[in-house]
Specification:
5-stranded antiparallel sheet, globular, mainly beta
Amino acid sequence: MVVAALAWLSLLGPLCGQGPGWMFGPFEKPQHVNPVLTPNPAATFRSPVNDSVVRWEEFATFNPAAAVRDGKVYVLYRAEDASGEMRIGRHTSRLGLARSEDGLRFTRDNAPVLYPDKDAQAQFEWPGGVEDPRLIEARDSTYVLTYTQWNRDIPRLAIATSRDLIHWTKHGPAFARAGGGKYRDLESKSGAILGQVAGNRIIATALHGKYWMYFNVPDILIATSDDLVDWTPLADSSGRLVKVLSPRSGYFDSWLVEAGPPALLTAHGILLLYNAGNSGEFGDPTLPARVYTGGQALYDSRNPLKLIARSDAPFLRPTEDYERNGQYPAGTTFVEGLVPFHGRWYLYYGTADSRVGVAVWDPSRRTR
């Protein structure tokens, strides 16, 4: 056991910022396995929308969700083909599925598991596709997926459900029924549903009889649901949507903030890992303009709107070549998947909008 532990530790890279006691980390980037998923030009798939064979993950594989099932880590990742203009947001995205025995080395399916189809969602998902998943499990073992529908007109946060992570039922835009339909065309994305840890699973958790979801960018908003499918954004008495986290001048999150993996109910409160963009004008001068890093925020466990604490520096940032080389050269460590597995926390993130990386935190090794 000691030899195995030493061998595992030898894979680890530099520490990624330990913060106050309520924060998760420090996370370490295993050196000899990262990036854990890279584009595969050999994988082909027949697109049902236009009946053509496409190399669906030829151009990029990034922005992953994660869950533990049957003793394995499963990662749902965004994959882009090389169609369209050669710029961000102009390719077609689909979601692939990969699995791992150790959380570090993955095998993947040949075909995507969620993609634009000739279905009721085609008007929202074609030609841009389905993007940026977040994943949580309901108490009845149903998996609930939040993702972005991108028709190259309006990005919409949408919901899909599955019993096996392979076969998915699309439920459409998350806010389609709220307020008589007035939020259906709200520009929205990045849904982080509140949950709590149960062994190696993260289970959606209700507070005050409602499920809660942090979502959106450049400010983080909040929504509630009775069933994890239909959601209602919270608005104040004037009808303005409630902002629960906003950019800060002079900090790493001065340009934008965006919800990351599912929020977690912890002993300290509700922990939300979020993605942060740095402004070149009024941000952190030690960071590149528009670089994406990771932050952490803590909310009151009895009031998901009440911010208690917030990190002053990124806990994860681009330090490696694969995090700065790709279609987003300013650099990204875009966090979306977080799972407890074999006593450690595995954080899966997108790198430079091109690959998938992993960072690992072993709580037993945390310095006091």
